[in-house]
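<discrete_fold_record>
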Amino acid sequence: MNRRDLIVKGFKSLVLAGVLPQFSACIRSELEKDYLFSLNENDFNFVQLNLYGGPVRWMFDNFLKPKDENEFVPTKMVGGRFKNSDGDVELNFIKRYGYNVPEFWGLKSKSGLEHSSLLENMITIRGVNINVSGHPLGIIKTVRPDSTKPSLQGVISDNSKSPLPSVIFGSNPATRSYFSNERGGLQVPLNESNLLKQILNPFVMAEEKSLFGKKNKKDKIIKSVLENLDGVYGSEDKYLKELRGSLDLFIDNLDPYLEEYASVLEKYEKLISENTKEFDGLSIDKLKLRELNTSNLKEIEKEESWGRYKIDYQTYLRGSNLEEMLASADMGHIPHQFACTEFLLKRGLSNSLMLSTPNEMGSFLYGCNNTGNISQKSFEKKKIIPAKEKSISIQMDSHHTGTVLQTAASFMFYRGLVPCLDRFKNELKKVKTKEGKTLFDKTLIHICSEFERIPRDDEAGSEHNHSSHTSSFLSGSIKKFKVCGNIKTGNKELGTIGTSANVDHFKREIFAKDIYQSVCDIVGVKSPVPRAKGLLKWEGDEIIPTFDELKNVKGES
């Protein structure tokens, strides 16, 4: 296929998909040199932060004892801080906005702002039963509870006037479950740092890309494309009129956007770096981590004997280098996704976005220095053998990470996540709409994963608890922090871990389809999923829960 035919085919695809004309129609007059996009006043934005992999959330937003009267059974494996130097953990609570929340929320970011300020605009629904086992099926339920209907992002796209359909970052079962009746989602791989360039490149016809060569050749190709499209649609087609009127604006104006994106990205990366390199509130330096030498290899050669100190399938912690190992870690593509989402929302380019993990069973910490760790072969050879891998990633799915690393890594991740959410919120608040609201008022941010965890008996990690899903919602239209949903108190072995219990208001447990319904109710689209119950509703200009139950009821975890 020659270059001309390639360009013709590309334009046909974009026009047929209805993407390019809608995109071009949102660009302002060529006389305006900033090339800003106008916000669509009719669309309510939805941003899902999908933590695929089922990370521990009991230290973050799985509120297990929100009221003093709620019975709570603690265990030495469920917590947000280290109880002693042996690595036992505990979940300690503080009071904020009338609720008991994990003490994590009382910490301050480097800017001096307490984490709990984020709670002002949050509603958390706990005790949701996903009702299927396993990560893939569990996370699919959160975005597409009925396999015969559009996914959550898809049904929003079908009802949206925004120029771009849903933007889906990453590649995992949640992102691959995207389905709509009318508009295909934009799947953005997380294998490049410049996510915005991946999204906008199809709309740019810059000469430096060597696509057209000389300007007169470029004009001939564009003219040929339009003539070809005339034959398909007719010269009076409204899309073609819009296309002709704005084609020039696609030429040579990507660089300013990329410069802006780079500046925003730098701010998110700085926030994460300055808030995750110290472990305020965790007392990690007081841990007595197990030392290894050739004389005690036989004593601890069995995996289960490592218990809370275990790291993963292949490598083991040696000495007291946990701080050093975590200090070298980063949060992967989290800052890139936040930066790109901020840009797209503020420019009015899309109103449905999913931030997620890069691939199957995503990690949340990357590049952890592994030089102080030993190989499992050490136990077979009865001598210290360094691990070949010089860096490891720490998975959200913490079956074999040990209670110590699970607690420290989760703590570090949330310490980086909260400042990002806070900046994102404040940036949206700066954008005013014609009706006097802010962009944060017109955005619903949904934080979810497929399920919470069950501690392992040997303390070497945790297992799945598909009966314990938590969804937290942030919006400027949420005016009061609320926690809703009933859970079981559990027993001495597993403790209180958020397992779902019946809600009297609905005469049943809460399910994933109810979360789907709730988002649809708030963003103003009709849910296609039958027999679901809305958990959120509008009361004037405020988003509130539809029910007010918050019980820890007798029952096994």
User: Anything to note?
Assistant: Residues 1-36+205-252 form one domain. The chain has 14 helices and 23 strands.
